[in-house]
């Protein structure tokens, strides 16, 4: 018998950081959860959903996931963009959750079943100076991680992406009424990072997978130089070397270095990945299941990538909620060309609000076998933590010019 959607509600909560969740309920009494968190712009997606998407979901058949995706993408005319795609992603995740609960299957079974026993994950180790970074790498290995993203401070700079000077947990979105302004100096970064990462490799030995994120800050020529300089470090990947809107310039980077490149955490559709994949300008696709239109669309991006031997490595920082992380782990378990899942981790309160079947052990994640995505939201607890204004930082060069953060 055909079911129908009777309500779609947006929940904005801040248990340790801001999240936007979508709850879809069917006439049959089944609920599904999606993640619509867009770091620093949360309320824009909440409004897009509440004001424009939720009303037109009511009455639709929740089983028709692909048709709903097309309806919200092609049917809107104003397609693409992070707000639209995060909203579509939330609906898509919630509908897969519902389909899993209705059929009594974990979502990975609906995607064709497991192609591996568990999925490799990486987390972040940071140190303001190299000795602190080496300690952080050791401590992270003790937690079982076999793949670690390493970021370090840069002499002469007071703040650097991914690192806290006091060694505390790094969270990019600062709470407050406006963005923090950071001073950035690419030349200082380029002078420091190859040597620092070489020390990490010498300390860690050859087997540990090391990753590094340049966070969109280099010119193509600088990226080519850095990639070459890092070849002896044998990185698993170098991430977001350039702001990749102009993808032609990446040919220059690719021609200069064999250091593997990971790009695309800010991309939201297959069309933004098309050139990067078909010209083999990247090795890893970094899109998040929440920001890139849900499981339905990320699966399609992975299928295109598979043709060109590019692998899927979804974005998974603290701003990708435990609901979306669940979606990524189900997809990762069932996708042959999945490579690795970022797992930055969450504040304790976040785990209490989002109770999840997915587990972390020994450097790997597993989605669990609960029907659907396997995440339940404690709505009463969530209501105790209302939205708090929070912004990602902005970066300026030493002369005050605004640059990419
Ligand atoms: O919201 C911004 C973060 O998601 C981003 O800075 C994290 O680059 C990131 C990463 O690779 O985790
Ligand atoms: Mg990144």
Question: Would you kindly provide a written description of the structure presented here, covering whatever features stand out?
Answer:
The structure is a single chain. By secondary structure, the chain is α/β, with parallel strands linked by helices. It has a domain at 110-369: Enolase-like C-terminal domain (TIM Barrel). It is built from 13 helices and 20 strands. It has helices at residues 42-57, 65-73, 82-103, 107-110, 130-142, 186-204, 220-229, 250-256, 270-278, 294-307, 322-334, 348-353, 379-383; strands at residues 5-13, 19-26, 31-35, 119-127, 147-152, 174-175, 181-184, 209-213, 237-239, 261-263, 284-285, 311-312, 341-342, 354-356, 359-361, 364-366, 375-377, 390-391, 394-397, 402-403. The strands form five sheets. Strands 4, 5, 8, 9, 10, 11, 12, 13, 15 and 16 form a ten-stranded mixed sheet that branches. It has a three-stranded antiparallel sheet with strand order 1-2-3. The relative contact order is 0.17. Magnesium ion binds at residues 213, 215, 239-240, 265.
In short:
This protein has helices at residues 42-57, 65-73, 82-103, 107-110, 130-142, 186-204, 220-229, 250-256, 270-278, 294-307, 322-334, 348-353, 379-383, and strands at 5-13, 19-26, 31-35, 119-127, 147-152, 174-175, 181-184, 209-213, 237-239, 261-263, 284-285, 311-312, 341-342, 354-356, 359-361, 364-366, 375-377, 390-391, 394-397, 402-403.
Report the average pLDDT across residues. 97
Q: Can you tell me the CATH class of the domain at 110-369?
A: Alpha Beta
Q: What are the low-pLDDT stretches, counting only 5+ consecutive residues below 50?
A: none
Distance between the termini: 51 Å
Oligomer: single chain
Bound molecules: 2-keto-3-deoxygluconate, magnesium ion
């Amino acid at each position: 018998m055909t079911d129908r959607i009777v309500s779609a509600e947006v929940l904005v909560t801040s248990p340790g950081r801001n999240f936007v969740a979508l709850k879809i309920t069917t006439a049959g009494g089944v609920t599904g959860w999606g993640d619509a968190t867009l770091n620093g712009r949360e309320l824009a997606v909440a409004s897009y959903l509440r004001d424009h998407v939720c009303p037109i979901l009511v009455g639709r058949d929740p089983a028709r996931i692909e048709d709903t995706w097309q309806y919200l993408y092609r049917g809107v005319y104003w397609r693409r963009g992070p707000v639209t795609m995060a909203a579509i992603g939330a609906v898509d995740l919630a509908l897969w959750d519902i389909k899993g609960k209705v059929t009594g299957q974990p979502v990975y079974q609906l995607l064709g079943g497991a192609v591996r026993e568990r999925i490799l994950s990486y987390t972040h180790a940071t140190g303001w100076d190299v000795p602190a970074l080496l300690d952080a790498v050791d401590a992270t290995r003790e937690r079982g991680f076999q793949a670690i993203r390493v970021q370090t401070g840069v002499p002469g700079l007071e703040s650097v992406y991914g690192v806290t000077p006091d060694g505390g947990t790094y969270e990019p979105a600062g709470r407050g009424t406006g963005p923090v302004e950071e001073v950035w100096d690419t030349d200082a970064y380029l002078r420091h990072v190859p040597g620092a990462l070489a020390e990490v490799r010498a300390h860690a030995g050859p087997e540990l997978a090391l990753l590094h994120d340049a966070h969109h800050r280099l010119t193509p020529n600088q990226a080519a130089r850095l990639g070459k300089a890092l070849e002896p470090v044998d990185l698993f990947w170098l991430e977001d070397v350039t702001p990749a809107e102009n993808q032609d310039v990446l040919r220059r980077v690719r021609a200069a270095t064999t250091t593997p490149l990971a790009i695309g955490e800010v991309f939201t559709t297959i069309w933004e990945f098309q050139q990067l994949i078909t010209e083999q300008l990247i090795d890893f696709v970094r899109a998040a299941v929440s920001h890139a239109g849900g499981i339905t669309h990320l699966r399609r991006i992975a299928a295109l990538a598979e043709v060109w031997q590019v692998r899927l490595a979804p974005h998974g920082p603290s701003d990708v909620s435990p609901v979306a992380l669940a979606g990524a782990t189900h997809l990762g378990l069932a996708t042959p060309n999945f490579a690795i899942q970022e797992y930055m981790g969450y504040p304790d309160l976040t785990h209490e609000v989002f109770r999840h079947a997915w587990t972390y052990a020994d450097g790997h994640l597993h989605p669990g076998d609960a029907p659907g995505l396997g995440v339940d939201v404690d709505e009463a607890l969530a209501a105790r933590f209302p939205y708090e204004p929070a912004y990602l930082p902005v970066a300026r060069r030493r002369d005050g010019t605004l640059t990419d953060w």
